[in-house]
Amino acid sequence: MAQPAASSPQFRITTDRARRLIRYKLTGLWDIETFARYERAMDAEIRSLQAMGLSFDMIGDLTNFPTQPQFLNELRQEMIRKAKAKGLRKCAIIATSSLVKLQVGRLSDASYAFFSSENEAENWLKS
Q: Which of 31, 32, 49, 104 has the greatest count of CB atoms below 10 A from its CB?
């Protein structure tokens, strides 16, 4: 069962420890303080799974997340690198905006994929 981990007006994180799955939803325009809060909350969830010796997957809902300033994208890229080092296996991104897909796609590799629905994302994680 998913446990609510962290929430703010700009993000929500839930973790399903049984499925080793972190879900997150991002909204609105961010500044450095918002990113810092998100990074701390996400790192706490990742560390909790890592402490259990578990690799994990993520599903990110970016359907209401506009393109962000470049400096935030650079910070997100570093965050992705750290998550992989701590056991991130795959991250499925649900996004409808071509610009967001392009922006996030530059930060990603084969462990990231984009989908238009949660069902598609779930199926890819199972593969």
A: 104
Domains parsed from the chain with CATH numbers: 2-126 (3.30.750.24)
Give the tens place of pLDDT for each residue, 19-29: 999 999 999 99
pLDDT, position 67: 87
Length of the chain: 127
pTM of structure: 0.88
Residue 91 to residue 63: CA distance in whole angstroms: 15
Q: Under the phi-then-psi rule, with left for phi > 0, alpha for psi from -120 to 50, and beta for the rest, what region is 82?
A: alpha
Residue 22 in contact with residue 6, Cβ under 8 Å? no
